[in-house]
């Protein structure tokens, strides 16, 4: 699953930390500047469910 998050640096850091506690995260993209000042965008790819025998290791 791919999750998109928009916000400030602090909001993104908090959201990524919260998502990592709940879901196995495969990768986090680099920060992308949006059209607004002080607003950034990041994409998070979550790994497959651990019980399915997915290929990603978290």
From TrEMBL:
Q: Which organism is it from?
A: Nonomuraea dietziae
Highest taxon listed in the record's lineage: Bacteria
What protein name applies here? Answer: Uncharacterized protein
